[in-house]
C-alpha cells in the first residue's frame, strides 16, 4: 500500500514546533542511478541485480521471493515472513546488521544492511531467512495466534472493515495478504511447509545488491539458498472456508469509503491523481477526517478515499467523498499536475539515496514485472504525466463509478 495522506483533517493546519530547525533535504539521486550495473542469471540460483553503491562501506541486499497464495493459504506468506524475521534478528545482532522482511503484493522481500566487510555474513542472513521454516517449535503457534488476532482485529475496526469491503469488491478472488481469521485458524505446519517448498525455489528469486563487491563474490555467497529443487505446483484452487462473518464493528462515528481501480501498479497516473485528490480534500468541510490511499494489488492499483465524522457531519462527509473526483477534475490545471508529478518523482528518488533505499526502490519495482529497469522507467514516466492524461483518468473514474462501503454508529 502506498499511503498518500495517512490522516488528513480537512480544514486544519499542523503548526511547526516552536524552535524547530528546518534542515535542508539532501539532493535526490538522478533516475539513471536506478539502472543496474550488472545482471546475472546463474543456473539454479537467484537472479542477481548489481547496483552502484551510494554509501561508502555500506552493503544492502534485498531478496525477493515470488508468492501467490491460494484461498486456503491466505496468510501463509505473512507467517513465513514473521518466522524468518525472528531468525534474522537473532543472527544479525553479533554484527549490528539491520534486517527486515515485508509481505508485498507479489511475494516476500527479505533485506539485510550492514558493513561491506560483513557482506558474506549479510548473505548468510538472507540464506537463513529463506531456509526451511521451523514449524515444529512453539514459535510457530505463537506467530499464527498473533496473526489470527491481527486479522480478526482488522475487520472489527471501522476503518479496517471499510477497507476490507472495498478490496473484496474490487478484487473478489484475491486472498488478503494478511490472511483471514478462518484461513489462519486452519493453517497448520504441513500447509506452511508446502507453501515454502513451492515458493522459495532459488531459481525464481531475485537478489538486488548495492555494495562495492565483485560479481564473483555475490555468486559464491548465494549458493544453496532456498528450498531444494522441486516441481513448483500451482497454489490450490479449493475455495476457502467461508467461516462466519463478524458482526458490524462498534463505532461512535460514521465511516464511508469509495474506491476505484486506476491501472497497473507501474502506472504513475495513480500516484499523481491520489496526491491531487488529497490536496482537494484539504479544503473540505471541518470535522471530517479523510485518508487518501493508493493500494498496490498484484495486477492493479486502487485509489481509495476513506472518511469518518460524527453523525451530525455524516451527510457532509459523504458529499465530500462522493464529490472529490469531480471537484479535483474541475480545478485541474497544468501547474498542479506538474507539481504533483515532480513531488512524486522527488519522493521516489529521495527514497533511493541510501543503499537500503536503493535496493528497496529497484527491488519493489522489479517485483511487478521482472524488468531490472522498471524503477528507472517509473521515474522517467512521471515526467510525461500532464494535465490531459490526469484529466482522462479522472473522467474514466467518473464514468465507471466507485465501489462503496460504510460503517454506521
Describe this structure in words.
The radius of gyration is 22 Å and the shape is globular. The chain contains 14 helices and eleven strands. The chain has a six-stranded mixed beta sheet with strand order 2-3-7-4-6-5, with helices on both faces. By secondary structure, the protein is an alpha+beta fold. Helix content is 41%, strand content 19%. It has helices spanning 76-92, 119-129, 138-156, 158-170, 181-185, 189-199, 215-221, 269-281, 314-322, 324-330, 334-351, 355-369, 374-382, 387-400, and strands at residues 2-9, 38-40, 47-51, 58-66, 98-104, 107-115, 206-210, 254-263, 288-296, 301-309, 403-407. Helix 1 (76-92) runs antiparallel to helix 2 and helix 8 (269-281) crosses helix 10 (324-330).
- Roughly what fraction of the amino acids lie in strands? 15-25%
Q: How are the strands of the largest sheet arranged?
A: 2-3-7-4-6-5
Fraction of residues in helix: 40-55%
Helix count equals: 14
The mean pLDDT is 87
Order of helices and strands: EEEEHEEHHHHHEHEHEEHHHHHHE
The value of Rg in angstroms is: 22 Å
Q: How many strands, which pairing sense, and closed or not: the largest β-sheet?
A: 6 strands, mixed
- Tell me the number of strands: 11
Supply the helix-strand structural class. Answer: alpha+beta
Distance between the termini: 27 Å
Describe the global form: globular
Low-pLDDT stretches: 1-27, 240-244
Supply the key terms.
alpha+beta; six-stranded mixed β-sheet; 409 residues
